[in-house]
Predict the 3D structure of the following.
Amino acid sequence: MNMITIDDVLRITSPEMFDSCALRLFRFQAERCAPYRRYIELLGIDPAEVERVEDVPMLPIELFKSEDVYSAATPPEVIFTSSNTGSTCASRHMMASLEDYRRTFVAAFERFYGDPAEWSIYGLLPSYLEREGSSLVYMVDELIRRAGSGGFYLNDYERLIADVEADPKPKILLGVSYALWDLAEQYAPKLDRTIVMETGGMKGRRKEISKGELHAILKQGFGVEHIHSEYGMAELTSQAYSSGEGIFRAPGWMRVLVRDVNDPFDHTPTGMRGGIDIIDLANLSSCAFIQTQDVGRVLEDDSFMIEGRIAGSDIRGCNLLVHDMR
């Protein structure tokens, strides 16, 4: 069986190329990824009979917490982990190649924002910097290196503001949501030639509010017209980006589907709200077909919106399906 390469993935430019690559990768991972293979067997599905991407079974994301979701023949080069608030188990994403990860996130960034060297990139990611194993920190660190200017800031908001205001280049301030809220609330700096990009949620540091409410606070605090967003997770290799209004666009090798929250094997029509399924073909050495615990909808142009989480998902996370998988 021929393995898909990162070159195959990053060359995808059409739905037909995506479908062909996805079905090849599905059959490979259905054989080589032990937790995915067992899950498919429990469903009574024969991978050889799956002929449409829409019929590929999605692996519940909870299994990244309890199983080694890995399909490569060689040991992983890196294991990224998810953040947690102490009440949930961390997910582990085993990757065979750091270079594949670098190529993927750089290609996605370039697709939406151009060459990183054209920007200064400032990372305000305290909850991620305070732990090890964050794929987001690794990504932002590499983008800062390619930009040649910017840097990470932990809690020194005054120095961050001074450095951003003195920087003549176009800038991206990428921060975890609660830290951007703190910065906007405490200092309300009016930023010039700066994209404010939020990611990661509140991490238990501040009360949960809607994205619309958060973006209104940030727009007023920073004096910008739009708030950009980055959508990613430890279990994914790729990222989607929003340039405003909470509407995300994904690179050509990533596809978002919406499932009925009461029937995880039934995908809903365009525009209907439901659970988010993600196919990330850059997940070459783990599993590319993931049933997340996010809720949202896909729009007519294949962009998508994230509108929340399935209630109780973190509580179920460490236990769902574990008994049946063993």
In short: The two ends are 27 Å apart (CA to CA). Residues 197 and 228 are 4 Å apart (CA to CA).
